[in-house]
Structure to design on (204 residues):
């Protein structure tokens, strides 16, 4: 896949992001991720070395705020940014192109992943139906109303536990980094397919 930023473009864009005020590293990463609509999120290993280089060149300075280190653009950094406004406009156009390209790649990945997930879920559902069918063919005593109620409660508990566990996991992950469109689409598709499989099982 082609690089998201051309050589030197990220360096210039970081200066543009700092023009609005001091920011710490995570804020810059988050701002870039939001600019790309979640299709791209630079790593700390990408951002901090460039910030360090900008600081060495006197274009960026640091200031401490508790445990946090904020970066701010200097007068020299602002002068360089002003002298390269035309180039910055080109970087913005390149970002828009990259967003469209990444979105297209993302949609292709989602379609491919969803086909595999649907196949896996269908196979799992079929295996469960076969196992249940084999069990039903064995001699057994009629199920009582109490047995039916117990199994209903157990099924409801399984659904509740699944919901609670997944909700905690989603919130934990979202607290560390924003959910991506792939994650959201995967959750939606898997749950839709699971709903279909369970409904088919209830009808059989």
């Amino acid at each position: 896949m082609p690089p998201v930023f051309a050589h030197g473009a990220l360096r210039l864009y970081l200066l543009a992001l700092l023009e609005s005020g001091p920011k710490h590293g995570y804020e810059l990463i988050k701002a870039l991720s939001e600019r790309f609509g979640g299709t791209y999120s630079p790593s700390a290993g990408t951002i901090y070395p460039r910030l360090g280089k900008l600081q060495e060149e006197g274009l960026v300075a640091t200031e401490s705020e508790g445990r946090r280190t904020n970066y701010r653009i200097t007068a020299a950094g602002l002068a360089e940014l002003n002298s390269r406004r035309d180039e910055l406009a080109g970087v913005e156009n390149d970002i828009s192109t990259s967003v469209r390209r990444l979105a297209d790649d993302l949609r292709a990945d989602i379609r491919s992943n969803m086909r595999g997930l649907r196949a896996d879920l269908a196979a799992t559902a079929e295996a469960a139906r076969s196992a249940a069918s084999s069990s039903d063919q064995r001699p057994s005593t009629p199920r009582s109303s109490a047995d039916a109620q117990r199994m209903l409660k157990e099924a409801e508990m399984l659904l509740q536990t699944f919901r609670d566990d997944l909700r905690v996991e989603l919130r934990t992950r979202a607290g560390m980094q924003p959910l991506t469109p792939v994650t959201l689409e995967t959750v939606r598709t898997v749950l839709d397919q699971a709903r279909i499989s369970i409904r088919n099982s209830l009808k059989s």
Summary: The beta strands are 23-24, 60-65, 68-73.
